[in-house]
Every structure is written in structure tokens, then in C-alpha cells.
Task: inverse folding
């Protein structure tokens, strides 16, 4: 038993140390992260709400959190105060005006150590108004989950004045000061643990990977053209996407680029395919092509936080 525990601790420390020394890309785990807010109503009672759609991307060096940078995008239309009538008012012109301003964004410029925590200084944009703010946060730690994925946690509590961003409404009934609470779990997926098959269908990605390992890239690409017509195989966009990411993350960027091109050709309106191709180009050192594909990803989906964050690293 003691040997097993020591072995487990060794694997854990090795996995974490592999991410120390330079920032690497983490994505926000949407299902385990939240953005909530509270403010006083009629000057004395708090009411609370949340945004249901939040996207985030983080470049994290677990050995030095001050090297972290991140992008967060909130879909304003997703505001939820558990009262549909009030939510409709908040989406209107007097408040968030979601028809004109679909997103709230924050992009860090630098991170500084402050006491027991950290502060991220960056650009915050709401309702078309951009200001530089200081966002205090706590680094909760890093762990490796049972599938080998590295996860990091952050929490933040801050306050802003809604009037400074043109979010009006009656100051007699709703306070100007808004408390913001962020709880974030970000994940760096282990490329060897990514699920390649779902349900009962066979995985095209797995079949192609096996062919690449035995007979080379060209034959795997030809195999795809045949297997995508076979209804016993999963031929969804995630198949090529997972394979592209796995190759890029395991030192096979040139192969990843070719699979990424195939994926973009097959799914020309899928934002994630362009992001993955851009990421593969970046891994191969081709910043110009990476930039081109990140921009295309954002044209297709302005809420693609991964593309928005990585675009900063190639410009």
C-alpha cells in the first residue's frame, strides 16, 4: 500500500512539474465555473444573479502564477436572476442593451503578487466602455484528475460601479455598486486520455491514429475519405478535432496541420476547427498562419475565448 501511495505521488508531482517553467494553455471548464453578482435593492436587501454562458482561456505557468494571462468572455444575454421579467428588463437599453453589446470581456495585461493572493491588471469592456481595472484573485492550487488532466482553480471577489459603464436604471431602487464573484476551474486536457469514441460507434480518429502509426499520414487521410461514409463510425467534427489536438500536443505539429486542414475542409463553418489548425501552426512555429486561423475562428464565433487568448501570443 505504501509503495502504491508513493508511486501515485510521484506520478502526480511529475505531471504537475511538466507544466512548470512556461505558460501553457488551459480552457475554462464551463460546467464547473461560475460568474455571479449581487447588489442592493431598495438600499438594504441584496439580490443575486449570474451569467449562464461564460467562456475563458488561460495561459498558466503553475510554477509562477504571475506569468499567467487570460481572456474571459461573458454573453450578456445569458443573465439569469431567476425572474424572467426582470431579466428581460436587464437585457434592455437601460441596462446591458444586449442587442448592441453582446459580450462583457476581460483580458489581462499582467499579473502581480499581492499579499497572499494576486491581482490581474487588464482591460474590462462592458456596454461598449473599456477601462483598465485591477482584478484581485486567489490561486486555489493545481491537481491531476483520474484521467490525467491537469486542473487549476481560481477565485475572485471584486466590485464595480455600473454607472461608469452606462448600465443605468433607477439609482433609487438598485445600488450603483455591484459585487462580482468568480469561481473558475480550468483544465489542461491530457492528450492521451481524450475520449475518441462516444456511444457504440467506432472512432474514426482512433482508426486514423493507428494507421498513421503503422503506415503513415497519407494513408490515414485516404482512410478518412472511406470511413466517413461508413455509418458504423463516428464521423462528427470532434473526431478530426481530437486527433488534431492530440498530434499538436505530442510533438507532431506538422501532422496535426495536415489533419487540421482536412478538418477545416470538411467543416468550413466550425470555429473550433480553425482554432485547432491555428494552434497546430503555432506549435510548429508558424505564427502568421496561426494568426490567420485564429482570426477566422473569431469571425465565426466572437465568443471563442481560446482563439482570442492565443491570438495575443502570435501578434
Result:
Amino acid at each position: 500500500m505504501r509503495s502504491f501511495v508513493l508511486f501515485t505521488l510521484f506520478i502526480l508531482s511529475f505531471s504537475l512539474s511538466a507544466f512548470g517553467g512556461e505558460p501553457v494553455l488551459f480552457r475554462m471548464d464551463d460546467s464547473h465555473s461560475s460568474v455571479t453578482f449581487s447588489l442592493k435593492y431598495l438600499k438594504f436587501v441584496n439580490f443575486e444573479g449570474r451569467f449562464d454562458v461564460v467562456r475563458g482561456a488561460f495561459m498558466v505557468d503553475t510554477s509562477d502564477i504571475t506569468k499567467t494571462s487570460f481572456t474571459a468572455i461573458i454573453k450578456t444575454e445569458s443573465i439569469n436572476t431567476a425572474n424572467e421579467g426582470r431579466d428581460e428588463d436587464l437585457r434592455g437599453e437601460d441596462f446591458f442593451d444586449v442587442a448592441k453589446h453582446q459580450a462583457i470581456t476581460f483580458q489581462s495585461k499582467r499579473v502581480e503578487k499581492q499579499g497572499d493572493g494576486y491581482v490581474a491588471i487588464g482591460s474590462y469592456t462592458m456596454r461598449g466602455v473599456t477601462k483598465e481595472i485591477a482584478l484581485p484573485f486567489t490561486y486555489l492550487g493545481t491537481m491531476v484528475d483520474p484521467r490525467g488532466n491537469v486542473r487549476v482553480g481560481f477565485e475572485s471577489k471584486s466590485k464595480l460601479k455600473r454607472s461608469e459603464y452606462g448600465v443605468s436604471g433607477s439609482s433609487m431602487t438598485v445600488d450603483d455598486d455591484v459585487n462580482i464573484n468568480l469561481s473558475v476551474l480550468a483544465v489542461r486536457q491530457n492528450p492521451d486520455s481524450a475520449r475518441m469514441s462516444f456511444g457504440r460507434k467506432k472512432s474514426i480518429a482512433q482508426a486514423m491514429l493507428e494507421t498513421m502509426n503503422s503506415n503513415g499520414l497519407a494513408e490515414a487521410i485516404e482512410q478518412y475519405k472511406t470511413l466517413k461514409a461508413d455509418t458504423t463510425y463516428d464521423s462528427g467534427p470532434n473526431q478530426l478535432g481530437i486527433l488534431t489536438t492530440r498530434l499538436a500536443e505530442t510533438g507532431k505539429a506538422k501532422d496535426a496541420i495536415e489533419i487540421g486542414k482536412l478538418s477545416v475542409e470538411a467543416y468550413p463553418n466550425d470555429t473550433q476547427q480553425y482554432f485547432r489548425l491555428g494552434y497546430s501552426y503555432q506549435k510548429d512555429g508558424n505564427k502568421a498562419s496561426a494568426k490567420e486561423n485564429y482570426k477566422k475562428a473569431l469571425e465565426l464565433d466572437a465568443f471563442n475565448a481560446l482563439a482570442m487568448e492565443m491570438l495575443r501570443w502570435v501578434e
